[in-house]
Amino acid sequence: DLAPLQFQPRHAELKPFVRSINTLLSRVRNSAERERALIADAAHELRTPLAAMRVNVEALHQQSTDPRQRELMDSLLRSNERATRMVAQLLQLMRSDATADAGMPSSLRLDTLVQDRLAEFDGLAAAAGVELELVATGPVTVSGDREGLVSLVDNLVDNAIKYSPRGGTVHAALERTGTEVLLSVSDQGPGIAVQWRERVFDRFFRVPDQVQSGSGLGLAIVQNVAARHGGRASLHEGAGGGLLVQVALPLAPGQGSD
Ligand code: ADP
């Protein structure tokens, strides 16, 4: 019964109340921590069987000459790829929630990292009939965790390709401004209506009624990784009419406004 406490808020009487609030808070914290660990473990354990499935289906695909069977196996491989990507996204988010597990920061070249990641998407872009372009202004070094930044870039490029029309171009650009580097990725897709722009950074949120499949985790990862590096992510209208996502990251020390 809290009524007497409310009327006589003497210090000594508040103590047990504060104590039980603290106990409650630590229980909530522990259960959130357990939930995070459970999701991270499950995601981690799912990686191996998913990889085994892929290898086996690929082997069957190579042996089969039946077009119907090959079609079904192509569809299995696409589903496997989606599940693998979602598991990787969950792991990335759960790891970055636990500061202890987040990668150690090191000095790394963002321009070459972006270039390498774009090269990895060549096949996917070609299959989607999308052109990839990078405009970078020389070497740019940031202090960060490579795995997190790779995931940030991958999610931006993957989205830009996924939401691009066939024949469209995805532009990636790096630009230094004073103490920051601005990474932008833009496409010529439908963009995101203003009413959803705040919410698309939420975990699992997806704009309703869209044809493309996805997990709703990509932009949450982008924002989370940017924030962890002392940066921020924002959405804009692209020059080509689509979406432009911009990520600002602090430059590594010693690279200031020279
Ligand atoms: P996912 O793409 O897996 O659904 P994201 O978190 O990456 O999840 O994106 C959240 C939502 O934002 C998407 O469902 C989509 O509606 C929208 N979105 C993200 N990137 C783009 C883009 N480049 N063009 C248009 N819409 C986008």
TrEMBL record:
Protein name per its UniProtKB record: histidine kinase
Residues covered by the Histidine kinase domain: 41-253
Gene Ontology molecular-function annotations: ATP binding; phosphorelay sensor kinase activity
Keywords: ATP-binding, Kinase, Membrane, Nucleotide-binding, Phosphoprotein, Transferase, Transmembrane, Transmembrane helix, Two-component regulatory system
Membrane topology: Multi-pass membrane protein
The UniProt record lists the keyword rRNA processing: no
Zinc-finger found in the keyword field: no
Residue numbers of the full-length protein present here: 212 to 469 of 469
Reaction catalysed by this enzyme: ATP + protein L-histidine = ADP + protein N-phospho-L-histidine
Cellular component annotations (GO), alphabetically ordered: plasma membrane
Domain of life: Bacteria
Protein's cellular compartments: Membrane
